[in-house]
Amino acid sequence: MGEFAPSLSPAFAERALREGLTVVIGSGSVAAGNLGGLVCELGRAQPGPTLVILTEAAARFVMPTTVQHLGRCPVLREETTGPTLDPLHVWLTDVASRLLVYPASAGFLARAAAGMATDLASTTLLCATGIPIVMVPSMHPRMWANCLVQQNVQRLRQAGIGFLNPTDGMAPPVEEVASAFCDVSTEREIPAGRQGHGHNAYRGDERHPDHRIRPDKHSG
User: Fold this and answer.
1) Per-residue pLDDT for 176 more than 70?
2) Disulfide-capable partner of 182 in 10, 45, 100, 162 (CB 3.0 to 4.6 Å)?
3) How far apart are CA 82 and CA 146, in angstroms?
4) Cα 18 to Cα 129: distance, rounded to the nearest angstrom
């Protein structure tokens, strides 16, 4: 991966522990093609180490090497052993300070709402307790309006996950996503490397001052 994508080396692991890691999960939507640009925007809005996890479906819309080059970050797809010999999803959430799902497809929302752990992306999401989590859905507008999709969204909101709602099913521009996500993730001081210990999650029943992230009931 060279200079454009630091590997999970001891130096990267130490930086992630020291500064707090941003984990971005990309699922199977055409908006996955914007992941490289999104990581760049996240770095401008709030510098720090970032790592991207691609689902199998996401890799059909964007090449991992493209995200690595544009985002200058590691891109992972499969479960393995982390730098500390823990399972990778455990290590990631031990050092993560925030997690963003972009894009969140209808299928990913359904699996997340059901608590399914089928790959690195889903196990990492389930293990990410005590840190801000925001999802950015992106799908056909008729799918977004479907009552089953909205039930899944509501269930995830009740679990404390924030949402940046799409417009007619389409995710907002990456600049807006990065700005809104960084506003949420800096709302409270979050000690890096202490997932689930001593800091609060972004709760779904609290109204964030940034109106773009809506943890309350979907208005549509």
Assistant:
1) yes
2) 45
3) 38
4) 19
The CA dihedral of 99, 138, 120, 129, to the nearest 10 degrees, is 30
From the list 103, 89, 167, the residue with the least C-alpha distance to 134 is 103
Query: What is the sign of the dihedral through the CA atoms of 46, 68, 161 and 165?
Result: positive
* Contact present, 51 and 24 (Cβ < 8 Å): yes
C-alpha to C-alpha distance for 106 and 172, rounded to whole angstroms: 16
Radius of gyration of the chain (CA): 16
Q: Using a cut of 0.85, tell me whether the model's pTM lies above it.
A: no
CA atoms of 13 and 20, how far apart (whole Å): 10
Closest CA to 218 of 177, 139, 161, 176: 161
Q: Is the Cβ–Cβ distance between 102 and 67 less than 8 Å?
A: no
d(CA 3, CA 61): 24
H or E element that contains 145: helix 141-145
Q: Which amino acid is at 74?
A: P
